[in-house]
Amino acid sequence: MQFGKTGGLNVYEKRIVRGFLNEHWRAQDIVTEINSFRPCTVNVGRIYDVRDDPNQKAAAKKELEEYRAFKRSFDAQTGLSPFLDERLVKSREAMLLAVQVFNSPAISFRAETFSVLAVIAWTYLAIEFADENDLPTKRQNGSAISLSDFLKHNGCPFSEGIKNNLKAVISIRDSVEHNLVGPRIGDWLGVFQACCVNYEKKIVELFGERLSLSKELAFSLQFSGISIEQSETMLRSELPQAIKAINSEVFDGLTEDQQSDQEFQFSVVYTTVAGSKSSSFVRFISPDSAEGEDVKNVLVKHKPSALTHPFLAGQVVIEVNNRTGGQFNQHMHTQAWKSKKVRPVGGVERPEKTNLDYCYYNPTYKSYSYNERWVQLLCKEVGC
Fold first, then answer.
1. Are the beta carbons of 122 and 166 closer than 8 angstroms?
2. Please, what is the end-to-end C-alpha distance for the chain in angstroms?
3. Residue 244 and residue 250 in contact, taking contact as beta carbons nearer than 8 Å
4. Per-residue pLDDT at 214
5. I need a labelling partner for 140 at 20 to 30 A (CA). Which of 63, 162, 193, 229 fits?
6. Helix/strand/coil percentages in the chain, nearest 5
């Protein structure tokens, strides 16, 4: 499909317009159809120009039907069309499927499926980035580059942690194609979780917020019900030889810092709490909480980043209002961070001098973002 990118109709669109005119469409309806998802809209005068040109040929009825199907292929949320954005459409779908299958309690083929689909998702994303930035998308023999090829290229925009994570997922994918690994996949859960979080981060960073999967999918790989006795048995038990071999490829050669990088593997710590049978439960302790401070030598500390401080100022306002039902606004938020000295005012020489307990300065985008702890503090003060 040819998509006009200027304020004038291209040759293809002129034929489409003439076809619609022959079908007795009104000029206003035609311009609405033409402008749908078009990068640069045209005015109704362009339709009249086609109407007044006796030499303009018309598109056939089948071609008009194909054009209308093309226009209706765009996703209202992402703006993607499988006709124009096939790689990104399939990349997102592959990651959606990877997480959905992994989270399905009826599926035991989870590590295998996740690793295969996740590599496909990242490969499509990588090749799309390469194509848009004049990087190689083909090998010398004419075949498409692999994800491993892309990770080796100097133009790859991924951090060391993300590269290490993807190399690990690729190793797992290659290994499970030929080996039985059984139901024990806990060693890779952190790697898989980081793969999901990294994907969300990079597709938004490289292709825009509209491509975020957050509204369609919560990136948490669920744990099927497991008892404390079962978990203790797993910790004491000997790893199967097949998993040992895979783990040697995944983890060997990485330093302790590289293995603890949250972009390589996502860490979650469990703690049990004494109580009656009716109140005993497994608790997740956040390092931002008061209780988290008591177990800070156990919990993995997160480096301040957009992942630990995900809320922009406008999102903070929305979160506070959603949770309190109040009338919290942007001005009130500004007054709050000023009074609590959470971040410096604009124009200072060192904008990164923030209170990292609540706020983080992103030097790449030159913007401030806030964490859950800040939202909770505001909610408490507003009256949550």
1. yes
2. 52
3. no
4. 75
5. 162
6. 50, 5, 45
Q: What is the dihedral of CA 70, 91, 221, 187, to 10 degrees?
A: 170
Helix 27-35 to helix 44-51 angle (10° resolution) is 120
In this predicted structure, which of 134-138, 186-190, 360-364 has the lowest mean pLDDT? Answer: 186-190
Pair type for strands 359-362 and 367-370: antiparallel
So where are the chain's domains?
A: 11-71, 86-268, 313-382
What confidence score (pLDDT) does residue 248 get? 56
The pTM of the full predicted model, rounded to 2 decimals, is 0.55
C-alpha distances out from residue 44 to 29, 36, 56, 67, 235, Å: 9, 14, 17, 19, 70
In angstroms, the CA 66 to CA 72 distance is 10
**Tokens encoding 373:** 């702890």
Amino acid at 94: A
Find out whether 125 and 87 touch, Cβ atoms under 8 Å.
yes
Q: Using an 8 Å Cβ cutoff, are 334 and 347 in contact?
A: no
Mean pLDDT score, 139-153: 93
- Between helix 44-51 and helix 11-22 the angle, nearest 10°, is 70
Place of tokens 């194909």: 66
DSSP symbols for 340-353: TT-SPPTT-S-TT-
Q: How far apart are CA 145 and CA 122, in angstroms?
A: 12
